[in-house]
Amino acid sequence: MNMDLSPKFPRTFAEAEGGGYYNWASEDSPVLGEAKVAAGKLVLKPRGFALPHFSDCSKVGYVLKGSCGVGLTLPANTKNKIGFTRLKKGDIIPVPSGSVSWWYNYEISDVVIVFLGEATKAYVPGEITYFMLAGPLGPLAALSPEFVAATYHVNVEIAQKLANSQKNVFVIKLGQEEAEGIPKPDEDLVKIWTQNIDSASPDVQVKNGGKSTTLTGTKFPFLEQIGLDVTRLVLETNATRAPACASDAQIFYVATGSGKVQIVGLQGKLVLNTKVETGQIFVVPKFFTVAISADGEGMELVSIITSTRPVTGELASKISVFNTIPSILQVTLNVTSEINQHFMRMMENGTIIVPPFNLHQA
Predict the structure, then answer these.
(1) What is the dihedral of CA 104, 106, 112, 114, to 10 degrees?
(2) Angle, nearest 10°, between helix axes 326-333 and 337-349?
(3) How far is CA 329 from CA 325, 333, 350, in A?
(4) Lowest mean pLDDT: which of 54-63, 250-259, 287-296, 342-351?
(5) According to the model, what pLDDT value does residue 94 have?
(6) What's the mean pLDDT in 29-40?
(7) Do residues 73 and 81 touch, judged by C-beta distance below 8 A?
């Protein structure tokens, strides 16, 4: 099985005065469809407004830059199903499939949000398909004026205005008077709908190495609804994330910096050995082993795994899959007792994040 796992930048889906939306296409990266994951990025300029829409993928949004408001209409059986709350840099917000959302930038600088999602029910494998409520891609524009008029008890002239007045596709810029009509965010919803992963206590933190923070459904109940776990990985200068694998597919977005990624696939074959840069995504299929190393400027990544209860296999640290009966490990590796003992000590004292290391002094 040949998979192209090379990192990719997004395509432009829609751009306007108020901002733009950018998506990763499975045509460019077929592994998105094979792994059933998807990604997109929203940029809103000041007073930029992303028109109400829903999609065929459950996803999480991670705020890379700026602050904004988000309105959500969740399924009818959900508590706090309708509301408008605020987001800031570092916030994670789940967006369940089928829920209606709209986004507004009420600040004076741009806001950038990356979306990572699972695509098991996607119309286009590996892509998020959006369904707009208004504009040229909305249902009212496609239905006959008579249907619209009968549905809303209006005359045909008004029905045509409802269907055709909005000319933009995805993002618009509000005028000053329109902006003043946007409601204030509901602060009570912030702790229910969002969590800030940047400021959360890390699960692992290593001096001169970096830190790793994972949000799960246990820590953040809203995540349980969409079946995803979210991890933020920060690697300092020349630090390494030790090799690991997982029972479910993962998709990574490089938020800042650059570095090197190696992925080992079927039959122990190195299937990716390349540099990754800010703004790219890469996919790690289930049970493939991935190792990540930062360049001199360090690197920050955000990722999802398409399960709330994944099985992970670490190759380093106390929880390494190599941790077993010493004699079994020695036979498995076919090494001397001295090397085996040293290897086991290194695992006992090691961590999943490794600071810069001089190989010639090992």
Answers:
(1) -40
(2) 110
(3) 6, 6, 17
(4) 342-351
(5) 96
(6) 96
(7) yes
